[in-house]
Amino acid sequence: MKVKLVIALFVSLLILPTDVASQDSIRHTHIKHFSDHFFVWPVIKKRELSFQVVSVLDKKKEFNFKPNNSYSVGFGINIFEITLEASFSVPVDLKSQERFGKSDVRDFQAVALGKRWLADVYTQKYDGFYFSNSDQIIPSDQPFPQRADLATRNFGFSFAYIFSHQKFSLRSAYTFAERQKASRGSFLLSYVVSSFNFSSDSALVSKDARQIYGAGSSTEDARFTSLGLAPGYSYNFVVDKFFLNTTLVLGPAHYWVRYNSQEGLVKNDISINLYSAVRLGFGYNGDRFFAGINLTAQGRNVRIEQIDIKNTISTVRLVAGFRFPEKGFLKKRAVDYLPGRSSLP
């Protein structure tokens, strides 16, 4: 039985310099802290790496590649002001494998979310995809075309700075370590580094379609390394203890591209293209009970001659949990155990 391990590590510790007293006073006016509680919750998650091959000559022509991976279930806990979450995939049933094929998935993500910033690091390894294209309709009782030979590797790091952190809390919508008391928003600035590559035994675009898709459609192996700086904005719409968060980051990224065609030619290129990240979170953030649904997506778009390759990382996360008052040693914070911490002011 194949088991996929996806671990999301949420660290709610701010390691930048401590706010001055006036800044802390402003933040406590607008944001309720739950630093005197520990939390527990179950989690259901769906995380996926997919990509598209789109013709520049005709934007309606595209191949869509998706893995056949299932939801995962797990458990989370917030203790010592650190949030840990682990989930394991539910095995894909035989009926699903007959229609969508088999995918071998290894996916790891770690997220640190502070008062002023959000940091995200991930590594993904997906082997085996099914696909569809714009010229083909798959009947509901028929299997999709499958590419067991197709493998992808993806890793990256992003960092976002939150400007209005005194009145706005991103943690209130995603880790529930805080609760924002009134509707507020903040501008963000993100720095992104990533690398995505795919390899296969033959070209992604079928031979009879390459004339339509144009130059670059015979590519069977490619790597895109990107470096980007993207502005964004996040807003929490709050009604009592209910919330809706929307976050959008969009900006340019510099791409270094290396690709192999089926004819055995190796080519290198550079380009400036877009990086985007979207987050949506909505739910209830009470004093004892909290629950929410989070949807996130990161997208990149790279052009190889006359085709665009767009890859997307998407995550759907459902949580519901309870807070309990801390007692005894549970009142400690993880940072209190750092060497020399006792000597700090």
Provide a compact summary of the structure.
By secondary structure, the chain is mainly β. The chain is built from 4 helices and 16 strands.
Which keywords apply here?
single chain; 345 residues; mainly beta; two-stranded antiparallel sheet
Taken in chain order, the helices and strands follow as: EHEEEEEHEEEHEEHEEEEE
Look at the helices and sheets and give the structural class: mainly beta
Strand elements, count: 16
Can you summarize the main beta sheet? 14 strands, mixed
- Estimate what percentage of residues fall within beta strands: over 45%
User: What is the overall number of helices?
Assistant: 4
Alpha carbon gap, first and last residue: 53 Å
Stretches where pLDDT is under 50 for at least 5 consecutive residues are 1-22
Helix share, percent: under 10%
Specify the overall morphology: globular
What is the average per-residue confidence, as pLDDT, rounded to a whole number?
A: 86
Can you walk me through this structure?
With 345 residues, this protein is mostly beta strands. 7% of the residues lie in helices and 61% in strands. The strands form 2 sheets. Strands 1, 3, 4, 5, 6, 7, 8, 9, 11, 12, 13, 14, 15 and 16 form a 14-stranded mixed beta sheet that branches. Strands 2-10 form a two-stranded antiparallel sheet. Strand 5 and strand 6 form a beta hairpin. The radius of gyration is 22 Å and the shape is globular. It starts with a strand and ends in a 20-residue tail after the last strand. The N terminus is likely disordered.
Any chance you could write out the topology, listing elements then pairs?
Layout: E1 5-11, H1 21-30, E2 31-33, E3 37-55, E4 62-66, E5 72-79, E6 82-89, H2 94-100, E7 104-113, E8 117-133, E9 146-162, H3 171-174, E10 178-180, E11 184-199, H4 210-213, E12 219-239, E13 242-261, E14 266-285, E15 289-304, E16 307-325
Parallel strand pairs: 1-7
Antiparallel strand pairs: 1-6, 2-10, 3-4, 3-5, 3-16, 4-8, 5-6, 7-8, 8-9, 9-11, 11-12, 12-13, 13-14, 14-15, 15-16
